[in-house]
């Protein structure tokens, strides 16, 4: 099957540091190539991929030292290039939200759109009613709740290459980990309180976006001077393996409708249990009592930390391999690509 993967241009594919969508696109593209498909990746020129790269920008937007007022120009240029080459592919798989909707209406039945973000924003229902023909994929069943009547073709959970994060049977770090982005909805303040009350050190590997600088300086920075709290900063895949693998647990105390939560399966790949808030996709991704604990309060989270010795890290890794490998993700997408092709066949015969 000839497949085009169309990635956002904000980060490299995969990202050098923080980044979710582009990381998933990278793993999916490589897994599809390994399964024997012809894959063309539309992305910035700094992508690292086994697919055929169609570079549409010299570098990822976040890595570009040239100040940008808007990212629209780069993405519109990519849409034009994908449009020009659309006839080469059996499937056009978009990962750019709904940016492409006005441009590919005449071939919507050959497209698949994976939505990677939250869907409870005010204007989205009307937009998805405006363009109802595009087949959509959610990354969790919970993600699609605000748009129950959209054209959902399926749900595909994210996956990772099994060798990206090695299994650690006996971690030596003796600390709790927080990995992600420092923002109000990620609730690092909760993680700090949990670690303090549980008597564990907390290591924080996190990105601070410009939009969250005030929150960081006013709310989080004053908490970083507490004993046992270590702010590592933003890290990439090369550092994640040790950071997550040597942790006693990952804290995921979110306060928003998380569409998936890639960091949870990154921790699981290392055999590290996750203590996650009962919010968004968390109950869908974690197996309560097996790969982690799902909690509703700081008291419950502290109690979960006390029970960490009850987790079998080998079983956590086994859950990851069964449910969240890149090969499993690619297989699920191929099933959806095949359904699209079968539907087109029925339309032609009608």
TrEMBL record:
Keywords: Transferase
One Pfam family named in its UniProt record: Glyco_transf_4
Domain of life: Bacteria
GO molecular function list: glycosyltransferase activity
Domain Glycosyl transferase family as annotated: residue spans: 175-305
Domain Glycosyltransferase subfamily 4-like N-terminal stretches: 18-133
SUPFAM superfamilies, per database record: UDP-Glycosyltransferase/glycogen phosphorylase (SSF53756)
One GO term (biological process): carbohydrate derivative metabolic process
Protein name: Glycosyltransferase family 4 protein
Lineage: Bacteria, Pseudomonadati, Pseudomonadota, Gammaproteobacteria, Lysobacterales
